[in-house]
Design a protein that fits this description.
Largest sheet: 3 strands, antiparallel
Number of strands: 3
Distance between the termini: 31 Å
Radius of gyration: 17 Å
CATH topology of one domain: Thrombin, subunit H
Mean pLDDT: 73
CATH class of one domain: Mainly Beta
Low-confidence stretches: 1-5
Strand content: 15-25%
Helix content: 10-25%
Structural class: alpha+beta
Length: 87
């Protein structure tokens, strides 16, 4: 019988798709609509990707708000930074 690792932390994942309304409400999209492309951000002159193009990327939300990102490394495991899961 395997011992349960007491240091491991399991979180329930909720898979959902971002609606067009949610996508348009992102701060970068609001900035683009109101003032043109952001020049002080990390990405300059980028463009949106079609849905399902980067299927291994994961957005992590807390209380419904984007908090962190991660990479899907198997059907049930997400690799992310420690600060995304430690409080």
């Amino acid at each position: 019988m395997k011992k349960k690792n007491q240091n491991s932390r399991r979180e329930e994942l909720h898979w959902d798709e971002e609606s067009e309304e949610e996508r348009q409400d992102r701060p970068a999209m609001r900035q683009k609509r109101e003032h043109g492309p952001m020049m002080d951000g990390r990405v300059v002159g980028g463009s949106d990707s079609p849905a399902y193009m980067w299927t291994f990327l994961v957005g992590i939300r807390r209380n419904g708000v984007f908090y962190c990102s991660g990479t899907l490394i198997s059907a049930y495991l997400v690799l992310t930074a420690a600060h995304c899961v430690h409080e």
